[in-house]
Amino acid sequence: MKDDPLFYLLMAAMAVVVLILMTGIGAFAKGGEFNRKNGNRLMRWRLIAQAAAIAIFLLYMWMRMK
Questions:
Q1: 57 CB contacts (<8 Å, ≥6 apart)?
Q2: Contact 20, 49 (CB under 8 A)
Q3: CA 64, CA 4: separation in Å to the nearest integer?
Q4: What is the pLDDT of residues 2-58, one digit of tens each?
Q5: Which phi and psi angles does 3 have, rounded to 5°?
Q6: Which pTM was predicted?
Q7: What are the Cα distances from residue 63, in Å, to 6, 35, 59?
Q8: How far apart are CA 1 and CA 60, in angstroms?
Q9: DSSP readout, 7-49?
């Protein structure tokens, strides 16, 4: 597992999802101009990053089964 670059890509993708999610939740909790301007955009980016992470996970599982 440590020599598999796809594993590291998966970990990075999951970290990006968490980072975007935490930024979005923080902006929502704080409110204000930043949230009004970027709240929906952050959640859209989270969905895109989450879909990419799931796709990488499925590719990783498929590659491990071979």
A1: 10
A2: yes
A3: 10
A4: 788 999 999 999 999 999 999 999 999 988 898 899 889 999 999 999 999 999 999
A5: -95, 0
A6: 0.84
A7: 9, 40, 6
A8: 11
A9: HHHHHHHHHHHHHHHHHHHHHHHH-HHHHHHHHHHHHHHHHHH
Using the Cα atoms of residue 12, residue 13, residue 18 and residue 23 in order, give the sign of their dihedral: positive
Nearest CA-CA partner of 14 in 64, 65, 55: 55
The structural domain count of the chain equals: 1
Residue-range definition of the domain harbouring residue 15: 5-65
Residues near 4 by beta carbon (within 8 Å), at least 6 away in sequence: 60
Record the tokens describing residue 4, joined without a space.
């598999």
